[in-house]
Amino acid sequence: MIKVGQAAETRRRFAQEELAVLGVEGRVPEPLLAAMISTLLGMHLPGQGTNYLKQELAFPATAPPDAEIVARVEVTRLRPETRLVDLWATCHAEGVLVCEGRSLVKAGGDAIF
Description:
Elements (H helix, E strand, L loop, with lengths): L6 E7 L2 H6 L8 H14 L7 E8 L9 E12 L4 E10 L2 E11 L7
């Protein structure tokens, strides 16, 4: 059952060698940080069948290669009658905030409110 305050997180390191294949040096690209958030929304909270309606992200700092990045999403509002879920998302690299923002999604049919 999805509840306000419920959260999910994932951790990942992007090695410099991996980033070099993408033609990037010295930082983790912002789309990879956003993809970590997307993975959480689509696989964990609310879960499979989730559809993005709106997302706003800011990137106040750069995530360095090889740093442990912790992506987290937290439910801030539920609208069960329309299956809408508001979430706050963050990514920290070794404790430094590198991404934050909000998402509005429509939960899939398996999500329970």
